[in-house]
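Q: Given only this backbone (168 positions), what sequence would you predict?
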């Protein structure tokens, strides 16, 4: 490259940098104008529901809701998310008064472990052919507002486990 080419290239590069530089300071949005979705992130079990809300300045705002993956979780027009199967979805609120304003809540539907139990359905018999000290994991969903749990064991010759606990 000749000196003239280097000088021309350098001048062009300097001009491009000068024109391309802008003030990248974040713009502060006053609290009364802030569009927010609550909760922003949540993990829930399949079959469970979670209410998601949208506000501007802390006041409810009319939005339309959409799930990016309705096979994982659906969302009602009022923002009630119903978890269906393990996975991830974004539940997006779009302001009715200004559709250019969108915000999403990230929903992770957690994989469930263990064998599900159903109220009033007998489980068993438990196989006693497992290795000594082996564990069988059961899963129990307690509906909101329920405060009592009753477990009935029958048959067998000993304790079901040396480690057991039931939390209330």
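A: Predicted residues:
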């Amino acid at each position: 490259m000749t000196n003239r080419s280097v000088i021309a290239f350098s001048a062009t590069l300097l001009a491009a940098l000068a024109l391309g530089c802008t003030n990248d300071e974040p713009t502060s949005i006053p609290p009364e104008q802030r569009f927010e979705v609550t909760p922003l992130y949540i993990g829930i079990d399949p079959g469970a529901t979670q209410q998601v809300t949208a506000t501007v300045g802390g006041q409810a705002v009319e939005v339309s809701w959409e799930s990016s993956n309705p096979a994982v979780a659906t969302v009602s027009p009022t923002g009630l998310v119903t978890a269906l199967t393990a996975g991830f979805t974004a539940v997006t609120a779009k302001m009715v008064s200004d559709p250019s304003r969108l915000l999403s809540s990230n929903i992770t539907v957690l994989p469930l472990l263990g064998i599900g139990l159903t109220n009033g359905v007998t489980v068993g018999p438990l196989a006693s052919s497992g290795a000594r000290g082996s564990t069988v994991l059961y899963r129990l969903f307690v509906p909101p507002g329920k405060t009592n749990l009753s477990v009935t064991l029958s048959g067998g010759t000993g304790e079901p486990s040396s480690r057991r606990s039931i939390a209330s």
